[in-house]
Amino acid sequence: MRFRALLVDNAAMKDLLSTVNSLSKLSKDCVMRIVSRKVYFIIPDEDTGPRKPLAWCELPVNFYFKEFNLDGVSQEYNEIYLCFATAMLAKSLSTVKQNAKSLKIKLTNKQTPCLTLEIELASNEGLQNRQLVHDIPVEIIARKNWNDFAEPQFNDFHVSIEMPHLKPIKNIVERMKNMSHSLIVSANNFGRLSLQIKTNMVNLSAHFTNLGIQSFAVGQDNESTVGDGSANESIVTATIDIKKFLMFLTGMQLNHCRTTCSIVHGKMVKLASEQVGALSLQCFFTELSN
Amino acid sequence: METYFSAELTDFKTLYNVLKAITFKEYATLRPMEEGLKVTIEEMKCVETSAYIPVQMFESYYVRPQEDVKFKLSLKILTETLFIYGDDGNLSLKMTYKGPGFPLCLIIKHNDENITVDCQIYTMDVDESTDFLCLADECTLNKVVVNANQFLDILTDLDNTSDDLDLFLSPNPPYFRISTTSTMGESQTDISKNSEMVLLFQCENEFQAKYSFNYIKQILKVMNFANKVSISTGETGLLGLQLLINEDAKQMYVEYYITSMFEDDR
């Protein structure tokens, strides 16, 4: 098993840092899956029994890396799965904010398996060129456990709707979190997204209108139709954990991203952010069981 | 059906700040009157705090005439809802209350972002036994008006570990004395009636009473927003503080009443 990658573009290093920073807000540990064309960061959902990913982040190799060499566990399975503390990677990477010339990431064996980062900082104002080496202890995930981190596939979304600006949503959900544990996310076929909380004290909903609908499955038997003559309104709803949803909104400090919200009625909500060619991040929120 | 109460408001930042600062307890009584909206929090029948938002603060205001409209709701929920957009500006708020048994409905629009929040806060009937006495009529003995900032400084500088606070008013020196006692020692602060911070001093007879400092501390948070504080006392030892809060040309008031502690026979 061998892995070695090299970044020389400082902007790409900063992009990588901001992604890892966002991920570190979502969870303590993360799984890094390396294949020949992509690097994945997978955040496992800590409370579900059979482990299902909470967040799934995909980085295309050619956007970030100048050199990328991978020898996987075997020829047949040319992949590596590592598990480590997300905050450690975020902290080690934070030095690229200074004027880093190159960043080398490789898998090493120093007492324990480590992800070694070698950062070369350019000289500035009387300081010589410096090289920083960070070793992050990692756990290699055995082949038999790979299935736990398979990409969740859902293609039966009842609705996919464009998300408005995340900042006001974050403020709203933050307030809602102080009043309730669960959040009802719903969308209708006219491009309205609603976030709602219901408790024995209050019933509060925030409505965002005129949003682009990417797909809307009509004719679901679970749709509720409000018949007022000409316009038929169908609504798709799911109830999710408000804390996890907020975590995603707080963690998402990624710029230039388009976010889409997809709902399977009564089952789950998916948020997907994409910066075409550079990054895609998906978060999965399953229906709260009452 | 005719609604009991409806009001519209555009800039409610100060209202939020004031309500948040007086949220000592979960529930508050809202009382829309012809002159304005009164929000009251009462504790153990010995402390009562009211925020009073005059009609002039509202863009539009309606309360059903000849009806004593009052209802109870969770003030915490109300303040969280008013702050729903965080610090973002340019909001407008509409409140409606249809009548007993109905929730208080709020519609808050974010005019820049095309977002609408609608909210129903469930209401409760007000316990009839907690009929509002007009406490202002009781506090007629003395009246001292001081500058809020400086008065707040004095109160915050007092010995924090003290359980109670002793107030002494007199027409002769030392005029206005605040004393504390704790294991740390005793402290006395005298304010002369000629001090710059004293805007009005009316005292004909000596007055002395002791109050729980912990309760007094509650009011300090909202005093941050105040311009002037009027201190008045009643015969039974009742202490009333009226805080005047200026926002642009509009004014809001907070009234705070606290009963004195029993004097122990020392």
TrEMBL record, chain A:
Return the Gene3D superfamilies for the record.
Answer: 3.70.10.10
Location, primary (coarse class): nucleus
Going by the UniProt record, its keywords in alphabetical order are: Nucleus
- State the InterPro entries in the record: HUS1, HUS1/Mec3
Question: How is this protein annotated for GO cellular component?
Answer: checkpoint clamp complex; nucleolus; site of double-strand break
KW Nucleotide-binding (keyword) present: no
What's a GO biological-process term for it? telomere maintenance
Q: Where in the cell is it found?
A: Nucleus
Keyword DNA-binding attached: no
One Pfam family this sequence matches: Hus1
Report the family membership: Belongs to the HUS1 family.
What is the designated name of this protein?
Answer: Checkpoint protein
Automatic annotation (TrEMBL), chain B:
Q: Where in the cell is it found?
A: Nucleus
Task: Give the matching Gene3D superfamilies.
Answer: 3.70.10.10
User: A Pfam family name for this chain?
Assistant: Rad1
Which ranges does the record mark as transmembrane? none
Keyword annotations:
DNA damage, DNA repair, Nucleus
**What is the predominant subcellular site recorded for this chain?**
nucleus
* Gene Ontology terms: cellular component: checkpoint clamp complex
| GO BP terms in the entry | DNA damage checkpoint signaling; DNA repair
User: What family is it from?
Assistant: Belongs to the rad1 family.
What name has this protein been given in UniProt?
Answer: Cell cycle checkpoint protein RAD1
Organism classification, top ranks? Eukaryota, Metazoa, Ecdysozoa, Arthropoda, Hexapoda
